[in-house]
Specification:
about 650 residues, 5-stranded mixed β-sheet, about 10% strand, alpha/beta, elongated, about 45% helix, 6-stranded mixed β-sheet
């Protein structure tokens, strides 16, 4: 196409400045052809002065407008007089109609007419001065006033539509009619996406399955030659912070195909039918760019099981959106070159039709990282950190069981902030340990007012935890005890628990006994108990109830479980067992807890002198470590070398 043709194809675009210019031109036209602004620029005059000028023969014409205003026109000779110098003002804008020299308002019309007629008769001016009466209307002003309510309504409506459409689209009209368009963000080979599979540490199984989908889109013949079909969708399921969205970002960075990314809440709108319309538009765009990948984060916003908690009986917009999504993923005319990736941490509430084969063919579970994967995650997040010395990454990985990838990233960031707060030039090992303490236990509150009696009770409470856990085989190794208030707790005993895949009854009972050691110490030393064991009792009660009602570890209840993995029991109003069984369950839970409490009391009575010695050390130093326990109790009878560490780190808050 030549340059001339390009110029011919360019059509003038409507600019708002054209509208402003049209309004100004219309105003000027009204000013020129309607006699200006109704004499607003004329000199003001009183009735007495007007009668004087009239009697002197200076007045040529008087126009009485609407029975309340008079406009005075002077003769040409009078206009040159010095007394009328101020009346010789000119308008800023040109006008076709003549402008009055004076203007004034009067009271009663009949009285004014009488005065004028008398002045004309007395001075024989009836044939010289013209007196005109007419009515003047502001047509343009009246039109504006009549249209003003409609203009306001239309303006408010356009404003609301622009807000609800998210400000997208070309112009106000485009935004109004684009409300049903998809809000997905498109990433393609031209978009700079720096995240790749190398940046996703751990998650080997999940990466392998997701990478296979990317490879299929790049080289479909490798799989279709054997008769295989591309999967319709893959669902990433896992706890918060495990890296589901990060994995999707890596797919966007690795895939050489268009990648549409959006959240499940982007389909939700107050208008009926908008969600389904956006689903249709999303898949239409994806099919036009096929092969393509669609990623829907937090899909439970629209994928919740239909028919639940819908007591109103009315049409549910979310269900309409889900129905459209089901149809697009596996319905008549489905394009198999579009793959849907989705992420959620609430797979139990998703609709069964969404989870069936043919829609989300694969469910990829993204679990919490194990010790090896945590080491890899630490290595990724330690890259931008300026370290004072080479950190032992294996040590950090072992000290953070149960941490997700997001938690580990937070540890590294918090360590850098702590080092900067203390004026250091680099981040050291102690900064990382303090960061773990800060994240797990909360901020230290050394200025909290605590009486001596309360401090002594807290010290014996925490010493009780330390003593009982040190003497039990399956209790988690205690590595640090403090009576410094941190967060909402007055004191804490921190453990380094084993990473177990299955738990046996004796292990659960030992952990419950260690948790009850704090209250047992108060009973043994003071012969009184306090409210300080709230978090311990909550933890122990949940464990005992789980043993009886979930895991079937109670002899009296038997090998039964009342756990419903489908989540249907959440919407029921009845218990899955009888009243007699409920009494047995309550009795069994109470017996388990009381047995372990008495066991803790017996242990502390046996080692009362060592408990007192440990509490005194704790009162003196406020923070004690594993070395202090070894000096008092000796070597732990059930030492686990693989969990033994030189530097203690806060892992589990007790109080």
């Amino acid at each position: 196409m030549t340059k001339e043709n390009k110029n011919l194809n360019k059509k003038p675009k409507l600019s708002p400045y054209w509208i402003y210019g049209f309004i100004i031109a219309a105003f000027l036209a009204i000013q020129m052809f309607s006699g200006g602004l109704g004499g607003s620029n004329a000199q003001k005059l009183t009735v007495t002065e007007f009668i004087g000028y009239l009697e002197q023969g200076d007045v040529k014409q008087v126009d009485v407008v609407n029975g309340r205003e008079a406009r005075v026109f002077l003769t040409s000779e009078a206009a040159q007089k010095e007394v009328h110098k101020k009346s010789r003002t000119s308008n800023l804008l040109p006008s076709v109609a003549p402008q009055p020299n004076y203007t004034f308002e009067f009271g009663e019309l009949e009285l004014f007419e009488t005065k004028v007629e008398k002045a004309l008769e007395d001075n024989d001016l009836k044939n010289t001065v013209q007196v005109n009466f007419f009515t003047e209307e502001n047509v343009f002003g009246n039109l504006i006033l009549s249209l003003l309510p409609f203009i306001l309504l239309i303006g408010v409506w356009i404003f609301i539509m622009r807000r609800m459409s998210g400000g997208s689209g070309g112009g106000a009209g485009g935004q109004i009619f684009n409300i049903g368009k998809s809000k997905a963000k498109l990433f393609d080979e031209k978009t700079d996406i720096k995240t790749s599979f190398k940046d996703v540490a751990g998650l080997e199984g999940a990466k392998e399955e997701v990478q296979e989908i990317v490879d299929f889109l790049k080289n479909p013949e490798k799989y279709t030659s054997l008769g295989g079909k591309i999967p319709k969708g893959a669902l990433l399921v896992g706890q918060p912070g495990t890296g589901k969205t990060l994995l999707a970002k890596a797919v966007a960075g690795e895939a050489k195909v268009p990648f549409f990314s959006l959240s499940g809440s982007d389909f939700v709108e107050m208008f009926v039918g908008v969600g389904a319309s956006r689903v249709r538009d999303l898949f239409k765009q994806a099919k036009e760019k096929a092969p393509a990948i669609i990623f829907i984060d937090e899909i439970d916003a629209i994928g919740r099981a239909r028919g639940k908690s819908n007591f109103s009986g009315s049409n549910d917009e979310r269900e309409n959106t889900l129905n459209q999504l089901l149809t697009e993923m596996d319905g008549f005319g489905t394009n198999t070159n579009v793959i849907v990736l989705a992420a959620t941490n609430r797979a139990d509430v998703l609709d069964k039709a969404l989870m069936r084969a043919g829609r989300f063919d694969r469910q990829i579970y993204v679990d919490l990282p194990d010790v090896r994967e945590r080491k890899e995650i630490f290595e990724v997040h330690l890259r931008p950190i300026k370290q004072a010395e080479k950190l032992d990454v294996d040590f950090l990985a072992k000290q953070t069981p149960g941490f997700s990838g997001a938690d580990i990233a937070n540890v590294c960031n918090e360590a850098a902030l702590i080092a900067a707060r203390n004026g250091k030039k680099a981040v050291g090992k102690q900064d990382f340990l303090d960061a773990v303490d800060r994240i797990v236990g909360g901020l230290e509150k050394k200025n909290k007012i605590i009486t001596k009696e309360e401090k002594k009770a807290i010290a014996f409470h925490e010493a009780g935890h330390a003593t009982v856990s040190w003497m039990l085989e399956h209790a988690a190794p205690l590595v640090k005890v403090t009576i410094v208030p941190r967060g909402q707790s007055l004191g804490a005993a921190w453990y380094l628990p084993e990473e177990r895949l299955i738990v046996r009854p004796e292990q659960m009972l030992d952990e419950m006994c260690a948790a009850l050691g704090g209250r047992a110490a108060e009973q043994v030393i003071f012969d009184k108990i306090s409210t300080g064991a709230l978090s311990d009792l909550e933890k122990v009660t949940k464990q005992a109830r789980a043993m009886v009602t979930i895991y079937g570890l109670s002899d009296k209840v038997g090998n039964l479980t009342y756990y419903d993995s489908s989540g249907q029991s959440e919407y029921g109003f009845t218990k899955p067992y009888s009243e007699q069984t409920a009494e047995i369950i309550d009795k069994e839970i109470s017996d388990i807890i009381e047995t372990q409490y008495q066991r803790a009391v017996d242990l502390l009575i046996k080692h009362k002198d060592k408990l007192t010695e440990l509490a005194e050390v704790l009162l003196d130093k406020e923070v004690i470590f594993k070395d202090n326990l070894e000096k008092i109790f000796g070597e732990r009878p059930f030492k686990k070398p693989e969990l033994d560490t030189k530097e203690p780190v806060e892992i589990e808050e007790e109080e």
